[in-house]
């Protein structure tokens, strides 16, 4: 198998653990194992007595039950647990695609959503979000690019990196097109639950149509990336069985302590999500004020959901800006070029509790003390 390097992950591999201020992370504030165990009496003993043999390859019954509670119609036996969302993406694309198939992918996107399909020999057609329309996706574009070879359409809503969220009518129309044309839908919903206005939350695709899967993970909304627990939900039994059989060649089953802790966390999912939404709301106030004071340098459209946004840099080349900022101020932003996006944007992340410190460093960098040279000129 030949696959292009994952540009975003390579960027984080270089800089994440050596740059003091991370201002572009896509996850939310995490907690310690001790914090999780305090959520319920008996949890500490439960973890200590956990058997460390192989776990069930589809995910343990308690974990699948807790995951299913996030959906309207999906049952525990329609949940397939994975090691992170990343494994689920890899396995799905390898299971359903063949060389010559066509895949239409929401763009810009978390690279593996398109790259794995490409590595299988599928033709990947980017479905570009429109930066002039707050990163809207045009269903007319999709209809114009459907063919009898279209096997999968990929959407990521709420969207990484723009924070875009359409209204539910979009999803129902996608579902109708999927029925009509026969393609599958891979619906990456890893930021679901982080809508700033709860009434704007979309239905899960798996709840409305058996022609697709919903992708979920502990990493983003719940801030528990270190557990490496993700899942797909689907009412399509044939697809489920095929995905389960492929997983025997990747991880077989998950880590038992991770499954235990993920089940415990999901029992309290609303509490964890609300805590992270509170952090996001506070941070967004700071960002709105910051961008209002720098209209000459940045074009900022507030996002609708999630812990990330994708403002445009107006002061030069975004790669140079991000690199200089990292070197001089120890602040990490993510240039949009790692998404192959041509709009001179960068990703900013605001799901973590220490965002204000990074933002203060960015402010200081943009406004050097009187007498010192302005690095942007
Ligand atoms: C849209 C999207 N999908 C999937 C993933 C993969 O999630 P994980 O790293 O938890 O496997 C990410 C991670 O950033 C993401 O942003």
% residues in beta strands: 5-15%
- The mean pLDDT is 97
Given helix and strand content, the structural type is: alpha/beta
- The order of strands across the largest sheet is 2-8-7-6-5-3-4
E-strand count: 14
**Ligand set:** pyridoxal-5'-phosphate
Could you describe the largest sheet, including whether it forms a barrel?
A: 7 strands, mixed
Task: Give a description of the structure.
The protein is α/β, with parallel strands linked by helices. The protein folds into 2 domains: 7-31 and 270-366, Aspartate Aminotransferase, domain 1 (Alpha-Beta Complex), CATH 3.90.1150; 53-269, Type I PLP-dependent aspartate aminotransferase-like (Major domain) (Aspartate Aminotransferase, domain 2). The chain has 14 helices and 14 strands. The protein has helices at 7-15, 33-37, 43-48, 61-68, 84-96, 112-120, 139-145, 168-181, 205-208, 237-247, 256-267, 269-292, 318-329, 355-366; strands at residues 21-22, 79-82, 102-107, 123-128, 150-156, 184-188, 212-217, 230-233, 298-299, 308-309, 312-313, 331-332, 334-335, 346-349. The strands form 4 sheets. Strands 2-8-7-6-5-3-4 form a 7-stranded mixed sheet, sandwiched between helices. Strands 10-14-13 form a 3-stranded antiparallel sheet. The chain is globular and about 65 Å long. The model has no long low-confidence stretch (mean pLDDT 97). Pyridoxal-5'-phosphate is lined by residues 26, 84-86, 110, 156, 160, 188, 190, 217, 219, 225, 230.
């Amino acid at each position: 198998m030949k696959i292009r390097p994952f540009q975003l992950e390579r960027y984080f591999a270089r800089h994440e653990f050596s740059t003091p201020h991370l201002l572009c992370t896509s996850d939310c504030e995490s907690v310690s194992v001790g914090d999780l165990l305090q959520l319920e009496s008996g949890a500490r003993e439960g973890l200590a007595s956990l058997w460390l043999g192989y776990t069930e390859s589809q995910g343990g019954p308690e974990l699948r039950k807790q995951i299913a509670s996030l959906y309207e119609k999906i049952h525990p036996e329609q949940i397939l647990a994975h090691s992170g969302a990343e494994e689920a993406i890899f396995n799905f694309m390898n299971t359903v695609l063949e060389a010559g198939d066509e895949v239409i992918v929401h763009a810009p996107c978390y690279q593996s959503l398109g790259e794995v399909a490409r590595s299988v020999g599928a033709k990947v057609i980017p479905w570009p979000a429109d930066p002039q329309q707050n990163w809207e996706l045009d269903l007319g574009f999709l209809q114009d690019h459907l063919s009898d070879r279209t096997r999968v359409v990929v959407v990521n809503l709420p969207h990484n990196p723009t924070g875009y969220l359409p209204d539910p009518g979009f999803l129902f129309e996608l579902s109708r097109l999927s029925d009509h044309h026969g393609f599958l839908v891979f619906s990456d919903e890893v930021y679901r639950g982080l809508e700033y206005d709860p009434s704007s939350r979309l239905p899960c695709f798996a709840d409305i149509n058996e022609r697709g899967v919903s992708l979920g993970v502990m990493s983003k909304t719940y801030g528990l990336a270190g557990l490496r627990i993700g899942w797909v939900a689907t009412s399509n039994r044939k697809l489920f069985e095929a995905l389960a059989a492929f997983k025997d060649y990747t991880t077989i089953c998950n880590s038992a302590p991770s499954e235990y802790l993920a089940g415990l966390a999901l029992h309290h999912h609303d509490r964890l999500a609300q805590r992270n939404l509170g952090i996001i709301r506070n941070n967004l106030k700071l960002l709105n004020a910051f961008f209002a004071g720098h209209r000459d340098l940045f074009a900022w459209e507030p996002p609708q959901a999630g812990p990330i946004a994708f403002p445009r840099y107006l002061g030069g080349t975004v790669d140079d800006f991000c690199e200089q900022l990292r070197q001089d101020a120890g602040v990490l932003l993510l240039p949009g070029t790692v998404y192959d996006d041509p709009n001179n944007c960068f990703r900013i992340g605001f799901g973590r509790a220490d965002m204000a410190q990074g933002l203060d460093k960015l402010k200081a960098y943009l406004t050097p003390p009187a007498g010192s040279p302005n690095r942007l000129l």
